[in-house]
Each structure stands twice: as structure tokens, then as C-alpha cells.
Amino acid sequence: MCAVYPDARNPFAHPELLEDGLEPWTASEVWLMAGPTVDVHVETTDMIDRKVKALLCHASQISNPDAMDQLLRQWGAANAASVGLPEGAFAEVFQRIETG
Q1: Could you give the CA distance from residue 92 to residue 47 in angstroms, rounded to a whole number?
Q2: Above 80 in pLDDT, residue 100?
Q3: Distance, CA of 39 to CA of 7 (rounded, Å)
Q4: Domain extents in the chain
Q5: Of the candidates 49, 65, 47, which has an alpha carbon nearest to the alpha carbon of residue 57?
Q6: What is the pLDDT of residue 45?
Q7: Which of 16, 21, 27, 76 could form a disulfide with 90 if both were Cys (CB 3.0 to 4.6 A apart)?
Q8: Which of 74, 83, 79, 99 is nearest to 91 (CA)?
Q9: DSSP 21
Q10: Model confidence over 27-81: pLDDT tens digits?
């Protein structure tokens, strides 16, 4: 969050970026995974296979790769059901925070 607020918009946080010609920038919003209030979802049904394959590339961070496919599909299906998508759908859910 600090990278978005207040640092990204603060010209004094990273003066070396100004020297490189990069101006401060304000992100209008941040989407948090696992936030307490889900108010945005993205259907991922068409890319679930690609998602599983990509996450499995992080081999050093996964203790049980054989279980990862089923786990990701269960999470995605539960997320989809929680936002009213039909059976067989997958989704990611977020809490949207406006940064003003």
C-alpha cells in the first residue's frame, strides 16, 4: 500500500525518480485480495488452466504442487459462487479501495 499511497504521489519519497524524468503518479484505486469486504470480482473461467500452470512455476513457494490444481479450482469456484456466477465458473474477488 505504501507504494501507492503516499509514496507514488509524493515527489519527496523517491527523488531519484524525478532525476530520471519520472513524475509522481496517483493510483485512483487499489484492489486487495482477501479483504474483509468483497465488492469487485473478475471471472477467471476462461483462464483457470493458465492460472494453475503459471502458479505452478513458483516451485520454491509451493510445498505440495500435486494439490495446487485442485486447491486453486476450489477457491475459484467458491469465489464464483459467492458472487452469483453459475456452477462451473471461477472467479477472483477483491476489496476495492479508492485512494483519492
Answers
A1: 11
A2: no
A3: 25
A4: 29-98
A5: 65
A6: 98
A7: 76
A8: 79
A9: T
A10: 899 999 988 899 999 999 999 999 999 999 999 999 999 999 999 999 999 999 9
Taking CA atoms, 96 is separated from 29, 34, 46, 51, 55, in Å, by 7, 11, 23, 22, 24
CB 52 within 8 A of CB 67: no
The three-point CA angle 82-83-86 to 5° equals 90
Burial class (CB in 10 A: 0-12, 13-18, 19+), 79: buried
Q: What would the grid cell of residue 94 be?
A: 477483491
- Strand, helix or coil for residue 94: strand
